[in-house]
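## Example record

The block below lists the input lines for one assembly entry, exactly as stored, with component labels intact.
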Amino acid sequence: MKKTAVDLNCDMGESFGRYKLGLDEEVIKLISSANVGCGFHGGDPHVMRETVALAKEYSVGVGAHPGLPDLLGFGRREMKVTPEEMKDYFIYQIGALKAFVQVVGMKLQHVKMHGALDTMARADEELTKAMCEATREISPGLIWLAHSGKGKIAESMELKVVQEVYADRAYNADKSLVSRRLPGAVLRDPKEIGARIKQLMETGTISTIDGNTLELEFDSICVHGDTPGALDMVKTIRGILVDHDVAIKPMGELI
Amino acid sequence: MKKTAVDLNCDMGESFGRYKLGLDEEVIKLISSANVGCGFHGGDPHVMRETVALAKEYSVGVGAHPGLPDLLGFGRREMKVTPEEMKDYFIYQIGALKAFVQVVGMKLQHVKMHGALDTMARADEELTKAMCEATREISPGLIWLAHSGKGKIAESMELKVVQEVYADRAYNADKSLVSRRLPGAVLRDPKEIGARIKQLMETGTISTIDGNTLELEFDSICVHGDTPGALDMVKTIRGILVDHDVAIKPMGELI
Amino acid sequence: MKKTAVDLNCDMGESFGRYKLGLDEEVIKLISSANVGCGFHGGDPHVMRETVALAKEYSVGVGAHPGLPDLLGFGRREMKVTPEEMKDYFIYQIGALKAFVQVVGMKLQHVKMHGALDTMARADEELTKAMCEATREISPGLIWLAHSGKGKIAESMELKVVQEVYADRAYNADKSLVSRRLPGAVLRDPKEIGARIKQLMETGTISTIDGNTLELEFDSICVHGDTPGALDMVKTIRGILVDHDVAIKPMGELI
Amino acid sequence: MKKTAVDLNCDMGESFGRYKLGLDEEVIKLISSANVGCGFHGGDPHVMRETVALAKEYSVGVGAHPGLPDLLGFGRREMKVTPEEMKDYFIYQIGALKAFVQVVGMKLQHVKMHGALDTMARADEELTKAMCEATREISPGLIWLAHSGKGKIAESMELKVVQEVYADRAYNADKSLVSRRLPGAVLRDPKEIGARIKQLMETGTISTIDGNTLELEFDSICVHGDTPGALDMVKTIRGILVDHDVAIKPMGELI
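Predicted structure tokens for the full assembly:
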């Protein structure tokens, strides 16, 4: 069945002090949900406040984007963290962002893991549970944003799950993304990406890197805003959706 | 008029990673309110969770104890921070602690500045306002814990203020504490401290370092738990209060 | 007397992890001395190695650019640091950079304070002495790079001093830079800057903001490479120098 | 052949800011080589200077004890760091400590990995090589301090290697230490430890946890000084050595 609405989510608020990352002021106008850095892998209190203000101005749903305590590695290096530590890191970071969100009269919408947490979560169920527990304990109303097909543990813990797809990444048969190190992992041709999105919206399927057809449940498409090229891609994706009469709405309004 | 109840507050939760600070497990049994480090000058997510759990176990009121982003200096070195930065630091830290408090079903009780913030706030009204604004925006129900006579700005901003005295510190005529660098600044004789507390509870006055009598409004006495000697002093103070039929209650129950 | 050679120095190596700052790869080709961040206010071990490699490739003299332990504030916020702490921060940072320099077979050339250290040093002679002591103890051969007229303490401590001027900044009568907050503090007109440099090189004088003529001793001109506009300015300055047959050499070769 | 001299090495200088770790002032009197924290997992510039001063006072050899950039985890959590990053971390940390050592007129003696680096190095030869490369490039005279039998890579890279044994830890047949999580991993009985040391010094062998006899080459014994109990153990070990006419000397004097 043809989808008539979808969420566009994007990482934001990952600048730190004098260091600026991403074209947040531009990309915010194009998306419907923002995954906001919480000060561990990126983001700082000032950046968090400004990002939340931007989200409010453009009616974009705000999610926490907690990461590893590794600013130097931007949270992209796996660390041997215990589930207990992980849970505490999530409560701390989500709590901090939630305060900025509440102060402007909004509600925190969702939580999405950052960087190496994704890899770590896939390798260790206890870590995933710890993150989900933190999320649910902070508020049972928080949405867990997961890769399509990868939200089972969150669901089993009674979290609302929204699934996302990557329009510009190739998929393996097991619904995982093709590693960035392999050729063909990242798509750059707007036409090809347009065709994928059309197929996704109309049939709920995507072609895998080995040429098969994969069914993917999703309510959100993940986009990037860290380079001018990435921003153009978001405009392209948004244009395709608009052309197909697909409404772009924060994930919280879709479930 | 004789006081029949008072709060005992103490800084806690300022350990970090493998570094342990303070005899939290002991002092928690003796006090009624804990000022908990929030990860900037001291404290980390793990320590925060454990400290909140201790507070819950012993029915101790939990306050946020935000500090400067200077772990190396333990938040004791003045930094030229703008009011806007300060407000953001407070929202971040209070928000993070609030999450740990809510997760165990408690309510955050109060906020108390840490370390050099006290000096900075006295020198710059805008900084004080920024901290108070952050506190009130997070929740108008939060108590602002201030030195006796020093809570005027917080009051003018419609925050509930609880005033505190230091039983083991000498006072100047203007209600400020005598600088630690001066002789006689810190009292160590249990008898003398006992006499001061008796006088405080019975008459609401204290003798200044130059021999005059100072009226001090207060609902809380600040104690320390970072050394075995400090802990003994808390026991002494507590004993004096109990001997005088003074109830020891979290500040939130006193106003 | 007309100057026939001058050094061009520029801050570099202030990126951190994924955060990129400055057009180091471009500006390195235009200058003769680099002030390299040492990991406190900016810079990290990876960035330091890469910056030193660039400097070696283009025969640029390498200096340490130590800062306050305040990455969040980029070392631009004054902190109440003791002279003893300051000396230790300098030894640590200069030592770390020196290792990267030695590993590629170069010699560390100079030391230049970063950010708020400049303001702090002017207000507190003991702090200046502490920084100079650290520099001299690490190596008596290290050059202390100072604002023109501001290197007296370093000289009195038997450090070799090189003085610098800012081609794009207005001067007060006391040889201090006009505060950035005041109008006219920063010059942007290439013609005007060209005229100033010509005057500086030919007569050793500069016009102050109130229209007087100031004599300025110098062997180095400080330039900036953190924006495309700044880079263009460096090109302009370099062009003017070349047009006037002024050789551009690392400060270590000028004294 | 009976050994007539041995080095006693101990981790030191791992305090941070207000956080104190270890009984450095006591243990320094009992050992001959100190592995000094370099500010990543523990230690700070102030602590480094004080530790080096202690080492100088008691004629103890100073080694760098570099760790992962994870103060929160005390460098004990494995991180996915590339060999290139690791090399840079080593150059930075060793360089910083070397500066403090040179400033007091001493020479840096050795390098010893801290915490999780040991595990990571065993699992990844490229990481070990990166650490050794950094060490050798800083100075070919630096000693690489390795577990007995585990210094092959360092040797192949032309580093001088000193091997160490743990007097209070049980050994597996492959010369690895029995994991702390297993029963019997840590020995606490002074008599038993005394017997082990006697056997080590007289025959160069140790009994493994499964009762076999293992030959262990070594010139250094690693001891701990982080608790009063640990300190007593060092005194015991030292006493046994003295009783057996074994001289205790910095490793640099033994090879």
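Strands of chain B lie at 5-12, 33-37, 61-65, 110-111, 143-147, 160-166, 205-207, 213-215, 220-223, 247-248. The first strand of chain B starts at residue 5 and ends at 12.
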